[in-house]
Automatic annotation (TrEMBL):
The lineage of its organism: Bacteria, Pseudomonadati, Pseudomonadota, Alphaproteobacteria, Rhodobacterales. It comes from the Bacteria. Gene3D superfamilies: 2,3-Dihydroxybiphenyl 1,2-Dioxygenase, domain 1. SUPFAM superfamilies: Glyoxalase/Bleomycin resistance protein/Dihydroxybiphenyl dioxygenase. It comes from Phaeobacter porticola. Residues 8-124 form the VOC domain. InterPro entries: Anthracycline_SecMetBiosynth, Glyas_Bleomycin-R_OHBP_Dase, Glyas_Fos-R_dOase_dom, VOC_core. This is Putative enzyme.
């Protein structure tokens, strides 16, 4: 019997060089309000979930990102249409690096944040 958990990704951590710049970028790009917490070994910016007990969380911490566009890609939900998100990514200092890619359940595009972290933004089919 193969191991089949509810989610393979339990949470994500994204390293950035400038927490204030990262907070501004991700709040603008996603439409979310990030929360700064300082009760752990590092300050963290947390993306809060609607259902904190049953979802996959993401946090941003001060660290060294992988070289430009080389690290893993985290795919994020964002408010609005992909066209809106693409505009916000660019206006917030990120870079859109692909057109929308269709999937059976929606579509996404690849981008880089101001630190060069590879991120995707996903839009589910309604």
């Amino acid at each position: 019997m193969a191991y089949e958990p509810k989610d393979f990704l339990v949470w994500g951590e994204l390293p950035v060089t400038d927490m204030d710049r990262a907070c501004a970028f991700y709040e603008t790009a996603t439409g979310a309000k990030l929360e700064l917490v300082t009760d752990g070994p590092n300050p963290m910016l947390l993306f809060r979930l609607k259902d904190r007990a049953n979802g996959v969380a993401l946090s941003i911490y001060p660290g060294t990102p992988a070289p430009d566009g080389v690290g893993p890609t985290l795919h994020l939900a964002a408010e609005g249409t992909l066209a809106d998100v693409m505009t916000r990514v660019t206006s917030a200092g990120g870079e859109v690096i692909s057109e929308p890619v269709p999937l059976p359940g929606g579509r996404f595009f690849y981008a880089k944040d101001p630190d060069g972290n590879s991120v995707g933004f996903y839009e589910a089919t309604a």
